[in-house]
Amino acid sequence: MELIINIFTLIFIVLSLFCLSFFILLLRTLAGKSITNSDYPPVYGTIYGQAFYFNNLYDHLTAVAKRHRTFRLIGTAYSEIYTVDPRNIEQILKTKFDKYSKGRKDEEVCGDLFGEGIFLVDGEKWKQQRKLASYEFSTKIVRDFSCSVFRRNAGTLVGILWEFSAMARVFDVQDLLMRCSLDSIFKVGFGVDLNCLEEPSKAGSGFMKAFDDSSAQVFWRYIDPFWKFKRFLNIGSEASFRNNLKVIDAFVHRLISARRKLLHQPNLNDKEDILSRFLMESEKDPTRMNDQYLRDIVLNFMLAGRDSTAGTLSWFFYMLCKNPLIQEKVAEEVSQIVGVQGEEADINLFIQNLTDSALDKMHYLHAALTETLRLYPAVPVDGRTAEIDDILPDGYKLRKGDGVYYLAYSMGRMPCLWGEDAEDFKPERWLENGTFRPESPFKFIAFHAGPRTCLGKDFAYRQMKIVSATLLHFFRFKLADPTRNITYRIMLTLHIDGGLPLLAIPRARKFA
């Protein structure tokens, strides 16, 4: 009997502490937020309330944004302002660039994973990394080398899909594209042949899974008020996150160590990759640019180089399967420009003719990829933190320390920005007399804008165009299960939840 009483007493104490914590959290959240003050954006809930809509969070935020183009969610110490107004975005990313930073919140939440990489730092560290990366992306040597790698990996993909198609075998195109992009970024960015596409290794597959799961776990931290407590006790999602970090760190540190050894070989000519440049820079200042700093740089560039392209291509093939006439129109453009036709498919001849000049002429393909990014941006939500009290162009005030986030996913679905057909997949909206016509980067925000505009934009388009043109020239694609509901996984980048099972049907009778 005494044992039962003690158990009930313990349960009562735990519940009381939880209720007290919740009450304190509620008071801190509501206090001093000017909830009824119309000078500030209208309140549509709390930051933590997003947990109720977590599985379809971006669509929930879109529904709110259609009611009010700028709104806020309140937290314990600050508010988060969300906007789909291009004027507001231009102010925080360009006009008052130096008055907004990544902020302490992002550093706390994402720091364990991305450390002091380019996406999370400001000031001199950001300038240093951007300067070196800018040089890397702009050199003709790297541009030519990257295209060679992309073409080779696209050819490998064709060979894999040819075997699948011969057996009428269903395959996960997202998994293949992720492995293909990982091979590309590690070769171009870090000078390493992973060969995940041809021979999936246990280490490579483990690294990819650990990285994707960590991305989802980091995102959860933004709406979990108790994540620091869970991290301290090493329980729940934080315990899993810590285990994933061990896998990630071990993999990347092995990469850095191997590359550092190769760097000092006298006859090694391949020193043009991003990692080699940072390694050479680190030898000038080994205390500041230590292996941990290099690890952060590697993970940041891997996020940009793999997730952005592979994720976008996955959604691209989904949209083409949903719109078969557009799929055929893209394939027809590729065939006409590259000029390789006939019943026998020669992959080597096709890749030889897939020159930079040919890619530049593929306006419809470029428009279809851009239309995919409009509806399914690689980074669905992004933003900055106010370093001053400010007033946005739409008239709303915000306080120092508030986060200001632009909803790229929602913006692509706003009739006020794109017309009543905003949610339709329509590549023609990007064309004028058959030529691609860009929009303002503050309206089409998929590649960021202002001084922090994505350095790898052209790099990403080249990779996506080479891979998609090659695959569409040799195959038609169909959804393996047209009745399945395709949605996203909530993480830092926009992946298809559970992958995208497809069937590939050869366009030629014979593969050479």
TrEMBL record:
<dbReference type="InterPro" id="IPR002401">
    <property type="entry name" value="Cyt_P450_E_grp-I"/>
</dbReference>
<dbReference type="InterPro" id="IPR001128">
    <property type="entry name" value="Cyt_P450"/>
</dbReference>
<keyword id="KW-0472">Membrane</keyword>
<keyword id="KW-0812">Transmembrane</keyword>
<protein>
    <recommendedName>
        <fullName>Cytochrome P450</fullName>
    </recommendedName>
</protein>
<keyword id="KW-0479">Metal-binding</keyword>
<keyword id="KW-0503">Monooxygenase</keyword>
<dbReference type="InterPro" id="IPR036396">
    <property type="entry name" value="Cyt_P450_sf"/>
</dbReference>
<keyword id="KW-0560">Oxidoreductase</keyword>
<dbReference type="Pfam" id="PF00067">
    <property type="entry name" value="p450"/>
</dbReference>
<keyword id="KW-0349">Heme</keyword>
<comment type="similarity">
    <text>Belongs to the cytochrome P450 family.</text>
</comment>
<keyword id="KW-0408">Iron</keyword>
<feature type="transmembrane region" description="Helical">
    <location>
        <begin position="7"/>
        <end position="27"/>
    </location>
</feature>
<keyword id="KW-1133">Transmembrane helix</keyword>
<dbReference type="InterPro" id="IPR017972">
    <property type="entry name" value="Cyt_P450_CS"/>
</dbReference>
